Amino acid sequence: MSRDLRALFAPRSVAVLGASSDPAKWGYMLARGALEGEHRRAVYLVNRKGGEILGRTAYRSLGELPEAAELVVVTVPADGFELAVDEALEAGARAIVGISAGLGELGPAEQAREWAVVERVRAADAVLLGPNCLGVADAGTELRLAWGAFRAGPVGLISQSGNLALEIGELAAAAGLGISRFASLGNQADLDAVDLLEDLRGHEETRLIALYIEDFRDGRAFARSASAAVAAGKPVVLLTAGRSEAGVRAALSHTGALVSDRRAVDAACRAAGIVIVSTPNELVEVAQALLTGRLPRGPRVAVMGDGGGHNAVAADVVTSFGFELPVLSNGLAQRLAAVLPANASALNPVDFAGGGEQDISCFERVAGMLLESDEVDAVLLTGYFGGYGHEAELGAARAIVGAAAASPVPLVVQTMYRDSAAARELRDGGVPVYGEIESAARALARLREHAEARARPFGVPELPDAAPGSAVDGYWGARELVERAGIELAQARRVRSLPEARTAAAELGYPVVLKALGLLHKSDSGGVVVAIEDDEALVRSFSDLAARLGPDEYAVERMAPLAEGVEVIVGVRRDRRFGPIVLVGLGGVYAEIFHDVAVALAPIDEDEAEDLLRSLRGAPLLTGARGRPALDLRAAACAAARLSRLAAARPDLDEIEINPLFVSASEALGLDARVIATERGG
Amino acid sequence: MSRDLRALFAPRSVAVLGASSDPAKWGYMLARGALEGEHRRAVYLVNRKGGEILGRTAYRSLGELPEAAELVVVTVPADGFELAVDEALEAGARAIVGISAGLGELGPAEQAREWAVVERVRAADAVLLGPNCLGVADAGTELRLAWGAFRAGPVGLISQSGNLALEIGELAAAAGLGISRFASLGNQADLDAVDLLEDLRGHEETRLIALYIEDFRDGRAFARSASAAVAAGKPVVLLTAGRSEAGVRAALSHTGALVSDRRAVDAACRAAGIVIVSTPNELVEVAQALLTGRLPRGPRVAVMGDGGGHNAVAADVVTSFGFELPVLSNGLAQRLAAVLPANASALNPVDFAGGGEQDISCFERVAGMLLESDEVDAVLLTGYFGGYGHEAELGAARAIVGAAAASPVPLVVQTMYRDSAAARELRDGGVPVYGEIESAARALARLREHAEARARPFGVPELPDAAPGSAVDGYWGARELVERAGIELAQARRVRSLPEARTAAAELGYPVVLKALGLLHKSDSGGVVVAIEDDEALVRSFSDLAARLGPDEYAVERMAPLAEGVEVIVGVRRDRRFGPIVLVGLGGVYAEIFHDVAVALAPIDEDEAEDLLRSLRGAPLLTGARGRPALDLRAAACAAARLSRLAAARPDLDEIEINPLFVSASEALGLDARVIATERGG
Asked: Which value does ipTM take for this structure?
């Protein structure tokens, strides 16, 4: 259920509690910002000591105000926070922005204090942003209650870091973009990322949503809300932290965030169609491109420009991002040649060879022909454009804007003269302009990823209402669990002695596998012997395991014909924010060395599981390549889908893994199973 | 032998042949640039029509000048080029800059014209830059005979593209760097990249050499010259094109360049210690970092800054570039904590938690402690520094410069306020400052790669004087050639009929491999049957190959125990510019899907071959990992070294390949050999 945030972003009156006349203090900055909107709403500055602040008489308490302030900004020391909030609620505040720090981010005791406050806020049907936040801003309502000023524009920004929000704002302004609405999340004691995302989804001036989030709270709700925004035509771009151990450490010390595994975040992004980025710069790069509303339908790019060196470098860079530069058709090449000098090249890259100096209009004509051609999925103009500096160049820029607007094919521009009038003309006309070729190429690549993600939407699956099941007892319990879920495992016998092992092997038929049980990582500790060909070898292997590891029991299992297939890993892990995450990957060295895995929010169906497997870099191993046989991809997908449903129904299990799942031309057969149950308490 | 380029970069007098009073023409721009150095040397403007240019009376010919012009810039139409050069030589020119285009870049006929001119230039003991070049510039001698102006600085720049040189110049200026000496290569009819590289190596004001090159000409000489510059303490950074098919196409249409395979260029860079980059932006990024003269000795980075979000993002980005952020020792953490607020985190990232607002000096103190600590190999300051804007911040910047200068550990800075006074202070003090965190992290990563390359120098090997050997006859000729070079191959028998095959298999012992010969890619066309276990299977396989492919002859070979080892590829390919290039890689799917290969200039010795194998991502497969046995890496390295020596001695062979080379715990055994001889003529 979405909360009403009207009083937060479009208040009829504002009070700053803790306003100050000391320019070094937050209370000063906030007061000054609030006063900038004084022509739109009543602004009241409140300070216990009274006096004069920025030319206004300060009130000593909210009770003294001539009317209830709809929005109260609280910037008092932490120990006065509860009193201040209570005062605000009593005075009739509908929304409170908690700037005060030193609360829930410090630890459990302070969190308890916050929760108590939030209960009172909710009881009063008000909302609280923060505490430990840096404020809010709204371009449309001229609300400025945050650190720094933002240029107005189409980007809604939610951030858990003030400095990163500032940086995003600066980079956006340099790219000709701006911020429609900004909220600093802080400790998310009451309002969280989902509430603010829901608000931006319905906010007309916001055409794209940018997020920096460390703690996702209800991850599934977050993903659903983002998914709805994307479906409504508002792209969502997410910058997050905690993709490395040190990043987790940093986020933890910063906001006390419960940081999610990067794979869980990736899975949520895939499900919701969120574009995930690693830096503020990338965020603004891709935002520019997404705001064109045009996505490449395939990998074909045309590169154009007046400068052979720039074209050659651009061709290499664009290719390195997975694009192709097809040689253009004879017909198109001839039409291009007709507007270019004799020594120009119209193959792709289209090199004007000085044509721009002779007649600047060749830029618009070439761009137009390429955009209309149906021979490419995106066009990249690179290099010198913007450097001519004459009036005619502005005209060419306008004509390029027109050509881009008339085409469904995205056009992006890289120029060494990013601040030129022509570049501004392009940007103002909605054409993304980049200063560096790698930025332009990367933005195009992200557009293409986004196009593919939107073409095959995973969606955010519902989790069934489920209670913990019965405890899973070791290896045999794990086997039983996954077999009951419909996943076939290699036949196995439980044995405790060599005679039992010999009998089991004889029953199963050689070759067999012998496993020492009771170890977490059987393979790593040398607890698994494969390809035991005969009784003699079994005796040897058993004695060795017994001597080295002395396990209580063993499994004797049928040996799969490994040479005839490929080993994959299928697993589900539970993230505390996003719930169960399915992971599929190629097994063995592919996993260890090449880290070739794909993830999704569980549960997934068979088609999604197949998509996931096909998205692996090593997918050609499964689908058949260079004379290899095609394997039973569908069987592997079924196993993954079943495992994902099993995990979704068992919230008490932290991890379930089939590793390896042996996939041959005729089957998918689990060769090992492992379950880890949640440890409660602590 | 290096050429004397004094007259090119420090002429006592200059004439511009083709000077013009029309501001739209090159002859105007060059004349204006030449006149800017008039207080340093005599400048003569020459135009057939005489008249007045830029307030000077134009001479009608070089013969009219009062003295010989040491440097003559020729900017006349292509059909007047020979005459102009002859006139210049006759008038006593020591150096000629050929701006004129429409010559050798067009094709063989024009190349012949160029060569004739070059002969006369060399006979007169003069030098010619270009033609089809954009000029020269020298900051120290105030020589400006090129398009655009460069800020003065420590970077020597050689470029085969005028626009890219301009862009590099602009980006360098924005990074606080500048250009010491610039030469546009053009067609390299006389002076080539090697001559100019040699010149920059001896040029005192040049501290780093930046190159954009499409055609390397004598690639080995180029690599040797670059290697000498690197050894002399001048880093060499190379931007090149042609790493993709479209890039090759673009370079070809641009300068008619004979573009080298990217692997050849990579091999040369590895040999010479050249840092290779993909974009102008990367070039300037890494140049800044290299100019500090400090290289990280390992992967440990400390991240510091006042802003948890920035720190968290930086930690992730730095980690994604292969660095580690170790948790700092208790001792160091305590010393750091002593200068930071109570809620700061000194784990790494070091988060000031607002400490900078309270006392800006904590930046210099933390930086100093980290740089001195011996606990990290590089320090990265990220985020807000530069945004305080007060006088004390400048003082902190100066102190940081001092701390960086006193430490052998590199410090790099990312700030959202790249143009602030504090940022300038840092840059002027030699601390690299980046606007984006990915730039800072990438620069550090390139420094580390460079440190590793310099620690294990490959060097540029000499090629033996060698004549073509006798022709290599098919598969059996290839086998004989590599076996004579000391590389062991699987035992094989040549057969033409099924009875012969059965006899051969019986002699060799089952299992065997059967190959249909006379096909270029035996495996792709299904011409190889492995693991033939018995006579019956042999008969079946033979009949199948005979029916499908109908080859004239077959090989029956002993089957290697593939499950006990790993297949690698060892090959040597000849690049027309760089000569023979050794390539090693993991075989099969690793090569196809993961493109896991490493390259070097041939020949290499056994140690270098081992280094090459160890540099593969999949090296753990060879060296033993997660319970796998260590394989005979040395034997594989010996095979690679021997193959590289063989190839170096056989200039008539384009390609020699052992694929696969089977490596087990006890041996390296070639399972197939292939030789492609150079096709002459055409």
From this structure: 0.94
